[in-house]
Design brief:
- The chain is mainly beta and about 200 residues long.
- The chain has 2 domains: about 20-110, RNA Polymerase Alpha Subunit, Chain A, domain 2 (Beta Complex), CATH 2.170.120.30; about 120-200, RNA Polymerase Alpha Subunit, Chain A, domain 2.
- The protein contains 3 helices and 16 strands.
- The strands form 3 sheets. Strands 2, 5, 8, 10, 11, 12, 14, 15 and 16 form a 9-stranded mixed beta sheet that branches. It has a 5-stranded mixed beta sheet with strand order 6-4-1-3-7. The chain has a two-stranded parallel ribbon with strand order 9-13.
- It is elongated, with a radius of gyration of 29 Å.
């Protein structure tokens, strides 16, 4: 009996050699978000993982090798609590998760909506004295899509700046739309603007 026990203990000792455990921070990734919803906020952006594995594998481990997924496929509008399970952590071969902190996070989701807004041309510079430059844009309105709270703040979209200082005659330009850094998606990214130079008659 003692010989059997000794062999089991010896096997455990050998199997445990070369193992190490470290803690590191990894970013959260959200997947399966319903098409009609978008994330407004999350109370955490990263989680602290404790992982264990053979030393030769652990030496090359970094956050770039780790993926932590939160499945939001069943999420509904509003704030919800979602658990971070060990099974949600994707690690390189021969490394396992022993702890995840925090074990749950709060995520707030909001409905995505669409709305049509007018387009304004952003003009800089001035034409020569005694002249004027007018601008017409096509299309005049653009449909934008995004989170409801952001969409309702937008009264219009503006084009990228265009300098009219040297415009003569008629000039047609394709200009990018500027979303002002907001998380919205216009149905088109550019509009066509026609600039027309006119001398003022005295």
């Amino acid at each position: 009996m003692s010989a059997v026990l000794l062999s089991v203990l010896l096997w455990f000792f050998v199997a445990s050699r070369g193992q190490s455990e470290i803690a590191l921070e990894a970013p959260l990734e959200f997947r399966g978000i319903p098409a009609e919803l978008g994330i407004i906020s999350s109370n955490v952006k990263t989680v602290m993982l404790t992982v264990r594995g053979r030393e030769r594998f652990m030496k090359t481990l970094n956050a770039a090798n780790i993926r932590v997924f939160i499945d939001l496929s069943k999420a509904k509008e509003g704030e919800g609590i979602y658990h971070v399970n060990k099974e949600d952590v994707k690690l390189p071969f021969a490394i396992s998760v022993t702890n995840v902190e925090p074990a749950s996070i709060k995520v707030k989701l909001e409905e995505r909506v669409s709305r049509s807004v007018p387009v304004r041309v952003s003009i800089i510079g001035t034409p020569e004295k005694g002249a004027a430059v007018s601008a017409s844009v096509e299309p005049e309105t653009v449909v934008i899509r995004g989170l409801k709270s952001e969409i309702k703040q937008i009264r219009y979209l503006v084009t990228e700046d265009f300098d009219i200082t040297d415009v003569k005659g008629t000039v047609t330009k394709s200009l990018e739309l500027d979303t002002g850094g907001m998380n919205i998606i216009p149905e088109i990214s550019k509009v066509t603007v026609k600039f027309t130079y006119r001398e003022n008659k005295t």
